[in-house]
Amino acid sequence: MNTLIDTYGRTHDxxxxxxxxxxxxxxxxxxxxxxxPLRDRAEFMTEEELIYIAxxxxxxxxxxxxxxxxxxxxxxxxxxxxxHLSQLPVSLHMTTNGVLLDKYFNDLEKAGLNHLNISLDxxxxxRFGTITRRKNFARVYENIQEAIARGFKVKVNAVLxxxxxxxxILNFIELTKNNNLGIxxxxxxPFQGNKWDxxxxxxxxxxxxxxxxxxxxxxxxxxxxxNNATARVFQVANYEGDFGIIxxxxxxxxxxxxxxxxxxxxxxxxxxxxxxxxxxxxxxxNGGDITSLILENVKAKKKGLGGLSDLSKSLSExxxxxxxxx
Length: 326
Ligand code: SF4
Known about the structure:
The chain is an alpha/beta fold.
């Protein structure tokens, strides 16, 4: 029985675990220009501690675990963590930048993790270099195609930034013509060090208008909004895949939120935007009981957006995105 129910009656059965803060890319909307300070390994959960805490959440009723980062695949003992988590009664998902996917397809298949969200914000190699500050476009693109060919359920996450990549919206949607792929356009969100400002957002309306003007209004089919969903999903008539918009800033979906987060340093966040974190790791290391802490954290969850009326506060009061894991 799930007991992770907050004061708004929302049941939390989805845990996002950040395995590591570091990443092999430097995406401008996620990683501060100056990077993040390197921290002592002892500040982070060991594999045993991570599995122990994950098991506690599963005992409370968590049914879905998503692995995130930084970049989860740069975690040295990723395969071992994955193997342990695959023995829990949960569906496993992962968000990755796709650079190292070719090294882990077999481990992922063996563990039954077949839901992959792969970040790719542009289909242009030069722009990839600009936004990630690295040169791995070809490898990421090939790994996306390989993942689809292997039968993984693939979604491509593209953060839209005005006057940077919003001219590629139609090209991304065109990828869904002959591919069983989900494109997820993510609204640019404010986090520490990512130079966010509200003028850089691309709204759901803008995306739909572009698609409708190009494909014809009647050819844009809206899918029903699923419970706990984050994306409003659409499909171009007769296209294999679909595209969705995740507009946390302009059109939040907090009413049916079922998500909790565990950071790589063992802190629990009941909301992406909440800066009120519960330190599970220190209590665990002091031999304390973390169950009451987990329940208290859920009870303290705000109605929406971490209780922030002005989201730009997240720029200063919240962590950098790379240390939350989305
Ligand atoms: S902003 Fe917070 S409450 Fe809203 S959907 Fe995201 S995590 Fe849930």
